[in-house]
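chain below, 245 aa
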Amino acid sequence: MNNSTIYIVLDEIGALHTKNENYFGVGGYITNDYSLVQRKCQNIEKKLKKDNDYIKRMPEIKGWRLKPEHITQYISFINQETYKNNILFIPVHILVNKLEVKHLTLNENESYNFFVKWLLNYLIKCKIINNCNQILLLLDKRSISTKFKHSLQTHLNLFFYNYAITFQVQYKDSANNSYIRLADIICHCLFRMNNYISTLKTNKILFFLTQNKINLNKNKAIFPYKKKKEKIMQKIDLISKNDNM
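prediction:
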């Protein structure tokens, strides 16, 4: 990756303090032209609404509201269009095993910032992000206090100071920004793949992703890190080996 500025669009994978799921995370994608991604998202949303009455009636397109075939149609279209235009589109995420951290007293906002930093550290250390001098984080406008909004940008600039990378953090409303909705759809896939692996909907999502050669697990950080991954990770990675990306 050789760009002076890159954009990382992120949303949450599930919720940290819910008891029904074992995994939480932060995910989305890297690009070097989020304006083009925005336009392509608008194009595919327009087509999906035209072809499907249930989507047309949605107040806002969300991953959990879409059928598996339309989830993967959306992601596949963006993947193809960014490739044709020589634009980066790299799905990324961090996955947190909630069972391993349940003994800790975690503040939701503070934990979110920490896991964003952990993900960025993974992306930089693994050279998935490389040779750039500015990173603009575009995050879903969630319920977060002003204190933690400001602290994330400051903390990232201090933590990565020796890498000569400047960070900017912006919070965007998904209702008004389709590129944020794309991150939401990616996160919904990851949420189901890790918490509801055996359900029919998840199996359909995995089938369609594999069919379209899309691997959402290629660039994945794990917290806490373990050399031996959990069985659920092994199952997901086994499925992902069929992908060529």
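The first strand starts at residue 5 and ends at 13. Residues 165 and 210 are 35 Å apart (CA to CA).
thats it, cya
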